[in-house]
Amino acid sequence: MAIKTRSALCTAVLALAAAPLIAQTAGKTEAARDITFSKDIAPVMQRACQNCHRPNNIAPMSLLTYKEVRPWARAIKEKVAERSMPPWFVDHNVGIKEFKDDPSLTSDEIKLIATWADSGAHEGNPADMPPPRHFDDSGRWHIGTPDLIVQSPVAFTVKAKATDWWGNLVAETGLTEDRYIKAVETKPSPNGGARVLHHSVQTMLDEEGNPDGGTLNEYAVGKNGDYFPDGSGKLMRAGSKLQFNVHYHSVGEEITDQVSQGVVFYPKGYVPKHVVRTVQVASTDLDIPAGEENARSDAYFKFEKATKVTGFMPHMHNRGKAECIEAIYPDMRVEPLNCVSKFNFGWQIVYNYTDDSAPILPAGTILHVINWHDNSTKNAGNPDARNWVGYGERTNDEMSKAWVNFYYMTDEEYKSEMDARKAKKRPLTSTR
Ligand code: HEC
Predict the structure, then answer these.
(1) What is the DSSP string of 391-410?
(2) Which atom of ligand 1 sits closest to the CA of residue 344?
């Protein structure tokens, strides 16, 4: 079935490339007519787009039915071809390729959409439509009933027309004893909160307000819960506060939102074998000249013990362009882990590795984070290409970092996991 579709596609692509005159009537060629919305395109939309493109969600238009999708066929082709939709910016050609909840399209799916759009974007037979995808987000938590729900301290009203708003809101957790966390999930208010909440990053603060507990959870549209691998978890200390770093944007209608952080704990007294930590590997000494297209900055973090990296999230501001992370081993060998080659400030995405793709690194490995900023007029998001810019908290300042989730392992654990991976012929990353 898949092979049939692909060969039909190849024929169509060849026909289009070789014979432009025929291509104009390509909708009528056998191969192109084979590709229809009902049979081929709708399943892709269900998997990769409808999470956001449906009524009462973040995206500007719904993509549930042929009628809704048809007017957008050209725009869809363009956005998927440049890989700006679905929002997922990790480069598929570098390093580790398996991530949890990866919505991105395969190159075959992108070609399929392009050929369909170029050949008349036909509906085909409605009887070929897959059953509609069922979205159950009516307030249900994916992580199960949380033991603790902390709400951001204020309900924030986003006016119908307003500039974007970023800020930090701090709430008490009310926790009276140290507890280990098994799973976390962040939810905007039901009834439209997801339309205005662009992102919310929760950080655990101590009683004095220092961010010593690290990042608890990051929410961006379309995100479900985060489960830490079995036997690992984060520690929430008694008396912790929670800082919500939120970004709201208006959608032409007044909407009020209040973010909820749900937490599922391990049983009282349980201490997981591995404690997940989050570190910001940041370069704060930024010097980005006016007009510079490729201002590079470097940051380093040394893992003192053997480590498993469970995920990372690039963070820059409007001039952020790209981020690569690599491992510098104790013997100075360097291995690329991943690159986010088209960083987009509007999408704060955590790239969580699957359990058996998560890089495991020997003690003493240095994580090297390389970021590039574009302060030229070529960057449409640049507030002002005439100004030098340095590090700072305001959106118009810059940042340069990766948030990295990891846990330490013993050397024995490292060795036995590495041996198991070698046996499966998948030791680490690009060596696969
Ligand atoms: C995580 C949420 C999310 C997913 C998944 C997603 N989109 Fe989007 N999409 C958005 C948002 C939000 C916008 C508007 C803002 C922007 O472009 O970032 C948008 C904009 C678009 C636009 C441009 C609309 C315009 O006004 O020009 C197109 C086309 C599009 N998406 C197609 C798709 C397709 C096709 C898929 C799946 C292959 C997809 N999107 C997946 C959230 C999403």
Answers:
(1) B-SSTTSB-EEEEEEEEEE-
(2) 18
**CB-ligand 1 contact for 113 (6 Å cutoff):** no
Compute φ and ψ for 64, nearest 5 degrees.
Answer: -90, -40
- pLDDT for the residue 356: 84
The pick from 85, 116, 135, 250 for probing ligand 1's pocket by mutation, whose C-beta has the most ligand atoms within 8 angstroms, reads 85
Please choose from 52, 62, 109 the residue to mutate so as to test ligand 1's pocket, defined by most ligand atoms within 8 A of CB.
Answer: 52
3-state secondary structure of 128: helix
Tell me, what's the pLDDT at 283? 95
In this structure, whether the domain defined by 277-423 belongs to CATH 2.60.40.10 is answered with: no
CB-ligand 1 contact for 114 (6 Å cutoff): no
CB 387, CB 290: distance < 8 Å = yes
Is 148-273's fold the same as 277-423's? yes
- Ligand 1 centroid, distance to 373 Cα (angstroms): 24
Query: Looking at the whole model, is its pTM more than 0.85?
Result: no
d(CA 103, CA 105): 7
pLDDT tens-digit profile of 27-61?
A: 444 455 589 999 999 999 999 999 889 987 778 89
CA 329 – ligand 1 centroid, Å: 39
Lookup: tokens for 326: 């690599």
- Give residue limits of the domains in the chain: 2-128, 148-273, 277-423
Q: Point out the ligand 1 atom lying closest to the alpha carbon of residue 78.
A: 29
Q: In this predicted model, what pLDDT tens digit does every residue of 204-214 receive, in sequence order?
A: 998 888 877 77
Q: Which residue has the tokens 């009683």?
A: 207
Return the CATH number of the domain spanning residue range 148-273. 2.60.120.230
How far is residue 412 from each of residues 3, 169, 308, 329, 335, measured CA to CA in Å?
Answer: 45, 42, 13, 18, 22
For residue 87 and ligand 1, the question of a CB distance below 6 A is answered with yes
- Is ligand 1 within 6 A of the CB of residue 79? yes
- CA-angle at 198, arms to 195 and 200, nearest 5°: 120
**Residue recorded with tokens 């509609």:** 132
pLDDT tens digits, residue range 339-359?
999 998 878 788 889 888 899
